[in-house]
Amino acid sequence: MQNWGDLFFEGEKLLATKKHTTIEKLYDINLDEYKKKDGKEVERLVKVRVNQSAFRGAVLTNFNNKCCITGIGLLDLIVASHIVPWSKDKENRLSPANGLALNALHDRAFDKHLITVTEDLIIKISSKFYQYKDVESIQQNFIAYDGKQLLEPKKFFPDIGFLKIHNDSFAG
């Protein structure tokens, strides 16, 4: 866990062995081609979510500025995650009942439906994680929370209908 570079390299060696090749041949990348290209910048017109900061403030405050799964309180790592995505429900984009305070790792897993929360605020993780149950980081960050209670919100209970929608897409 202290040396991710070595862990990554070991994973690449295993993958190459499994595919009966070398690491060098596994990724046929000609670095000289990248040297010929220029890194460029362009200006683009983008849509911005207005009032997103109000949603973030309400959601984070609702969970005492902590990840509602792990209790991590480092605000730089906490995301106000939508239960039903912003793009899917215009009416409830800013509703704190459509939000969970999650750390960045669990936010990503929640968005990918690898984690869900039941109507009674129990955390469920996908069975996909159990394929890696011997990996310490999977055990600590996911499996350890399976079946645990979500940190209780202060004011806005997550809407049961929103949780049902998320559960319907859960990759159990």
Protein described:
The protein is built from 7 helices and 4 strands. It is globular, with a radius of gyration of 20 Å. The chain is an alpha+beta fold and 172 residues long. The longest helix has 15 residues, at 4-18. The strands form 2 sheets. The chain has a two-stranded antiparallel sheet with strand order 1-2. Helix content is 34%, strand content 9%. The relative contact order is 0.14. It folds into 2 domains: 4-35, no CATH class; 52-168, no CATH class. A hairpin with a 5-residue loop joins strand 3 (115-117) and strand 4 (123-125). The two termini are 27 Å apart.
Key phrases:
34% helix; 172 residues; 4 strands; globular; alpha+beta; two-stranded antiparallel ribbon; two-stranded antiparallel sheet; 2 domains
In short:
This protein has 172 residues and is α+β, with helices and mostly antiparallel strands. It has seven helices and four strands; from the N terminus they run ααααββαββαα.
How does the SSE layout of this entry go?
Elements: H1 4-18, H2 23-26, H3 31-35, H4 52-62, E1 78-82, E2 99-103, H5 104-111, E3 115-117, E4 123-125, H6 136-141, H7 160-168
Antiparallel strand pairs: 1-2, 3-4
